[in-house]
Amino acid sequence: xxxxxxxxxxxxxxxxxxxxxxxxxxxxxxxxxxxxxxxxxxxxxxxxxxxxxxxxxxxxxxxxxxxxxxxxxxxxxxxxxxxxxxxxxxxxxxxxxxxxxxxxxxxxxxxxxxxxxxxxxxxxxxxxxxxxxxxxxxxxxxxxxxxxxxxxxxxxxxxxxxxxxxxxxxxxxxxxxxxxxxxxxxxxxxxxxxxxxxxxxxxxxxxxxxxxxxxxxxxxxxxxxxxxxxxxxxxxxxxxxxxxxxxxxxxxxxxxxxxxxxxxxxxxxxxxxxxxxxxxxxxxxxxxxxxxxxxxxxxxxxxxxxxxxxxxxxxxxxxxxxxxxxxxxxxxxxxxxxxxxxxxxxxxxxxxxxxxxxxxxxxxxxxxxxxxxxxxxxxxxxxxxxxxxxxxxxxxxxxxxxxxxxxxxxxxxxxxxxxxxxxxxxxxxxxxxxxxxxx
Length: 439
What we know:
Helix content is 56%, strand content 15%. It has nine helices and eleven strands. Helix 3 crosses helix 5.
């Protein structure tokens, strides 16, 4: 059996002749049915095996197709799904979505912030003097998610290069001729970026792009202009150095003059000081006695002042003692007056309370006359014999006592012996409505 290696390199063919490998491949494919073993396709087991194989292959193909149908959208992107049959568009948020590839075509679009820099951000503009300068721009922009579907057809594949960069270049080219080169280098750079950013933002908003921030990095001038500017700066610096040197010389001259004047004034002051010292010495010798007399007078005055101060101290102490005695006497009088008022008030309150108690007792005695002997008996000592008698009026009570005495009986009946049981109270219970009498 002949073996054909399809992976072998193609033999070199001479010029003007057809290649030999198509004919060899055709012959090999024609010999494949003769090389295959004979399989009994008409038997039930072979048919079941073939059906099972077809089902497995169909399941594998369906699984692969289903797996391909789960489309993922990365964070910071929005998927634009286009229906292959209807042409409708829809936005897909970041995540996984079921969109079969046979029905939908997914285009991921980045909606997060992007930076335009590098070569795309290098623009050449003309200033007010006609100088051609290169401006390095850094712009932060993003695609407007709300207007993505409406602007999808007009959105280029690379918006940063094909849309954002040209619009920014046009804005800077229109705004740069308003400014001078020197001011652009020193202080007008931010203003130029703001003006150009406002103009570019309006134009990009119509295309569905939001321009958030525009900054100017480098500002490169032409070599000739840069050399002239550096030469001018050198001249200015030389002029400034000359001015500084002249000012320094003038200050040195002024310093020399002031030094001479100071030395002259110092000599004059030294002479005046020497003369003043001699005058002071003479006056000191002349005024020595006067100073001694003045010192004595001051000592006398000091002693007088000390005596006067001592007298004032004694007077103040006496006045303070008298004032303290007066305050103490007044405080004692106030205390006694307050105590007298308190005693009078207590007496008055006690009297009112006693009077009210007497009124209540009078009312109570009027209502219960037997309370008088009971109260009198309660106030007697334990050694006084207590006579319990029934409620008898005065004449009947006296007659009853006489009868007992004449009969040789005691005037009062002996009191019953108290019960010694612990359950009874220590005091003898007295019957109600009984009078107490003393023998």
